[in-house]
Design goal:
Elements lengths: L9 H11 L3 H9 L2 H13 L6 E5 L8 H5 L3 E6 L2 H10 L6 E5 L12 E7 L8 H10 L1 E12 L5 H20 L4 H13 L3 H10 L3 E8 L4 E7 L3
């Protein structure tokens, strides 16, 4: 398996996710102790996709996160740069109305300016080599007044919880890696989580990309966080 590193070379990261595509949803559940499903429900509620809207779900992988937007009646695009993930998604989500899969790079999206009413990315922003560049590209394809929702791993603010979280990442996940068929994925995801900025720092990066009305809300005591923003007119 390709070992992606924290310099996040696109080919290495894509290859890693290609190799884990069939088990990716299970991998997320194991890493988060099952919390990922609740977090995704929070994303659906927070984005509030409506019938007739155009929604981009970036780093959508197998499309698990995209289906609820499509079921709400939004014309939904599940976009990812891993062809392996997209192939699994096309197969698993076959028959879901209002949903299409598109291959695309977060730093050079294959969409026109102002193409979407809302854009979202869940647990994928930390895998992009240029965080602000990806946020700017998301703003480019969002109409003025459109909205952004980022769901990403974060850092608990309580010192004891933060210690437990770091221990899980440094000790618990390596133990899972030893019995896994894809140990490099566990190591990379643990390392990228530990290296990811905290809530306030990420909010600053969102603002640097030109978004306004930036705010965030912690999930599970800050293990993850939702960052909201609006594309100014």
């Amino acid at each position: 398996m390709t070992r992606a590193s924290l310099d996040k070379q696109p080919a290495d990261v894509a290859a890693m996710f290609d190799d884990t595509a069939e088990r990716y949803d299970l991998l997320n559940t194991l890493m988060t102790g099952g919390q990922d499903r609740r977090w995704r429900r929070e994303v659906v509620r927070a984005l509030g996709a409506r019938e007739g809207e155009r929604v981009l779900d970036l780093a959508a992988g197998t499309g698990t996160s995209s289906v609820p937007f499509a079921e709400a009646g939004a014309q939904t695009v599940a976009c990812d740069f891993s062809l392996g993930m997209l192939r699994v998604g096309v197969r698993r989500q076959a028959g879901t109305a209002n949903l299409r899969f598109v291959a695309g790079d977060a730093l050079k999206l294959p969409f026109a300016d102002d193409a979407f009413d809302a854009v979202t990315i869940s647990f994928g922003l930390r895998n992009v080599a240029d965080t602000v560049g990806a946020l700017r590209e998301l703003r480019r394809v969002t109409r003025p007044g459109g909205r952004l929702l980022v769901c990403e791993v974060s850092h608990p603010t309580n010192p004891l919880l933060a210690l437990g979280h770091r221990t899980h990442l440094k000790v618990g996940l390596p133990l899972l890696a030893r019995v896994s068929s894809n140990p490099d994925s566990y190591r990379y995801l643990a390392e990228s989580t530990l290296a990811w900025p905290d809530q306030a720092t990420l909010a600053g990066l969102v603002q640097d990309a030109g978004w306004t009305k930036v705010r965030w809300r912690d999930l599970t005591f800050g293990v993850a966080a939702l960052h909201h923003a609006v594309n100014p007119a």
